[in-house]
């Protein structure tokens, strides 16, 4: 059984359908990419899984539990962390306070300290800036903070929304390297990206989303070599 | 000189009551992003609750204060659940603002219905009437108001900065969706904010009625508006700002009343608001937030 199973998911914004009944699954240990053009419904898909957007139909199952109607703040406790589009760090709190809020649902102080140490290991820069207000960080550092904050909940599955957006190539490379590291440590990743080439390079499997429907899916490696995908999403 | 300092102390006393009310205003604004114009009337309810227990029923003062605080806390949470929460995702923030004004009239009219329009004389809950320090004779309520407000601000700052629910409040204030992604219940945090703000309004009600003993259904209206001015003056959303705004407003009001004109004292208070907003639109401690892209 897949770790995350999404079946026939439908979402409307007002009368406009944003997701027209999509189905996909993410297996334990995989990196799955969701690629597609602007407005295809990628961010909506992630928001729907974590309960930020109301569903019109369909089901979401995580490790066998139906989480379709679960409120957003309960879903974190299930083991799903979401790194939202645009980072969404708390600008007037310090880097350290942001990270500790990431561990909000966890009780054991020792385990939290371990997670903090591991986040600082992945992102040494966050340790240097621990006492700095998050709003004063650069875009790339904020992306690292948002990622680190998500890892503080010790998630089984991380949803990443456009981690490369607005970042310099150096930061993009660094973030993708850390996604691979986190995946190697056993965390499952669902990655939404406009930078399809980058995403397909690190993903095991991928789904292509077009105006609210999944049109193609398969092994990331195959999609990377598929002519129509190359034309439409890789700019070749 | 002695009379000036006495006036200053009286100003700080009134100001510390404004500060307690203003903190409730500012917390609710900062976290729930709404102006709760019924906040002043919760003070009045606190006054009547204490009056009923202490004077009408002749029960102990401590019980009266407890009932006022707990009653206001419950009332604040209930108002939020019944009147404001259903409108939280309404298209216009005006909907909830107008509802708050409606709740304010509702509370005033309920008090009118139950207690009538005749003012009641509130017996001070402070056990000592005056304290002599050197050449100054200071009313007991003055000292208690100042001490209580300082303690409240101290504990509130500790709570917000050092505890998990306090950090959750800051997170909800800054980004509601991101807060819920951390596992924070936004509804629960907003309820907690109303609970704390309204309990403080209950304390303010008891202090206000002890200092100014006439209690009527409209007792809370003017202090409520002035506390709102104090909150804006200090920078709405900021707890230390509300404290400073409240204290300054109380001092300005008392000094203005004594040295300029007793009729114009309210006009002076509101002129101060206008001047502050012209010079520094974010208030004394208000921050201009810049967003990085």
Protein traits:
heterodimer, A: 236 residues, alpha/beta, 4-stranded antiparallel beta sheet, B: 293 residues, mainly alpha, two-stranded antiparallel ribbon, 4% strand
Structure notes:
The complex is a heterodimer of chains A (236) and B (293). In chain A, strand 9 and strand 10 form a beta hairpin. The longest helix of chain A has 16 residues, at 169-184. Chain A has a six-stranded mixed beta sheet, sandwiched between helices. In chain A, strands 2-1-4-5 form a four-stranded antiparallel beta sheet, with helices on one face. Chain A has ten helices and ten strands. In chain A, 38% of the residues lie in helices and 27% in strands. Chain A has helices at residues 42-49, 72-78, 95-102, 109-122, 124-128, 139-151, 169-184, 196-202, 220-224, 227-233, and strands spanning 4-13, 16-26, 31-36, 57-62, 65-66, 80-83, 157-161, 188-193, 205-210, 213-219. Chain A is an alpha/beta fold. Helices cover 72% and strands 4% of the residues of chain B. Chain B is mainly alpha-helical and 293 residues long. The model of chain B has no long low-confidence stretch (mean pLDDT 91). Chain B has a two-stranded antiparallel ribbon. Chain B has a two-stranded antiparallel ribbon with strand order 2-3. The interface between A and B is medium-sized, with 32 and 23 residues.
Pattern of helices and strands of chain A: EEEHEEHEHHHHEHEHEEHH
The counted number of beta strands of chain A is 10
Order of helices and strands of chain B: HHHHEEEHHHHEHHH
Question: Which percent range fits the helix content of chain A?
Answer: 25-40%
Please describe the biggest sheet of chain A, giving its number of strands, its sense, and whether it closes into a barrel.
Answer: 6 strands, mixed
**Oligomeric assembly:** heterodimer
Using only CA atoms, what is the Rg of chain B?
A: 19 Å
- Give me the Rg of chain A, rounded: 17 Å
What is the distance, rounded to the nearest whole angstrom, between the alpha carbons of the first and last residues of chain B?
55 Å
The shape of chain B, in one word, is: globular
Spans of at least 5 consecutive residues with low confidence of chain B: none
Shape of chain A: globular
Strand content of chain B: under 5%
| Helix percentage range of chain B | over 70%
Strand content of chain A: 25-35%
């Amino acid at each position: 059984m897949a770790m995350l199973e999404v079946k026939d998911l439908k979402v409307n914004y007002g009368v406009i359908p944003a997701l027209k009944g999509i189905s996909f699954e993410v297996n334990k240990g995989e990196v799955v990419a969701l690629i597609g053009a602007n407005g295809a419904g990628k961010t909506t898909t992630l928001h729907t899984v974590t309960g930020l957007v109301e569903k019109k139909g369909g089901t979401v199952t995580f490790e066998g539990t139906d989480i379709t109607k679960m409120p957003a703040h309960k879903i974190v406790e299930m083991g799903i962390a979401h790194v939202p589009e645009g980072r969404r760090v708390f600008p007037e709190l310090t880097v350290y306070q942001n990270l500790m809020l990431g561990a909000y649902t966890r009780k054991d102080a020792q385990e939290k300290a371990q997670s903090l140490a591991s986040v600082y290991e992945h992102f040494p820069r966050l340790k240097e800036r621990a006492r700095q207000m998050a709003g004063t960080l650069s875009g790339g550092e904020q992306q690292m903070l948002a990622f680190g904050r998500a890892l503080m909940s010790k998630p089984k599955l991380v949803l990443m929304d456009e981690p490369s957006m607005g970042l310099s190539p150096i930061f993009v490379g660094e973030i993708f390297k850390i996604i691979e590291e986190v995946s190697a440590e056993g965390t499952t990743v669902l990655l939404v990206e406009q930078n399809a080439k980058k995403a397909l390079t690190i993903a095991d499997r991928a789904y292509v989303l077009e105006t609210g429907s999944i049109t193609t899916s398969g092994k990331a490696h195959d999609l990377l070599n598929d002519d129509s995908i190359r034309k439409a999403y890789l700019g070749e | 000189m002695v009379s000036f300092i006495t006036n200053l102390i009286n100003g700080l006393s009134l100001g510390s009551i404004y500060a307690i009310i203003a903190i409730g205003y500012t917390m609710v604004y900062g976290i729930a992003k709404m102006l709760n114009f019924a906040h002043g009337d919760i003070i009045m309810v606190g006054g009547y609750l204490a009056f009923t227990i202490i004077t009408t029923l002749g029960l102990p003062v401590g019980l009266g204060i407890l009932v006022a605080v707990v009653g206001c806390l419950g009332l604040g949470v209930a108002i939020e659940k019944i009147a404001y929460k259903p409108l939280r995702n309404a298209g216009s923030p005006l909907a909830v603002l107008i509802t708050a004004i409606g709740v304010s009239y509702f509370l005033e009219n309920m008090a009118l219905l139950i207690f009538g329009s005749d003012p009641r004389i509130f017996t001070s809950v402070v056990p000592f009437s005056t304290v002599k320090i050197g050449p100054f004779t200071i009313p007991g309520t003055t000292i208690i108001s100042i001490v209580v407000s300082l303690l409240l601000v101290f504990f509130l700052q500790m709570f917000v900065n050092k505890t998990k629910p306090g950090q959750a409040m800051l997170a909800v204030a800054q980004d509601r969706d991101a807060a819920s992604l951390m596992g924070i219940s936004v509804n629960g945090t907003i309820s907690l904010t109303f609970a704390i703000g309204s309990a403080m309004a209950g304390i303010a009600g008891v202090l206000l009625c002890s200092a100014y003993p006439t209690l009527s259904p409209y007792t809370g209206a003017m202090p409520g508006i002035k506390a709102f001015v104090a909150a804006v003056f200090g920078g709405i959303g900021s707890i230390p700002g509300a404290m400073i705004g409240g204290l300054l407003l109380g001092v300005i009001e008392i000094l203005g009343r004594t040295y300029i004109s007793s009729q114009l004292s309210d006009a002076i208070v509101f002129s101060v608001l206008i001047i502050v907003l012209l010079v520094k639109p974010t208030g004394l401690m208000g921050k201009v937030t810049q967003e990085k892209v």
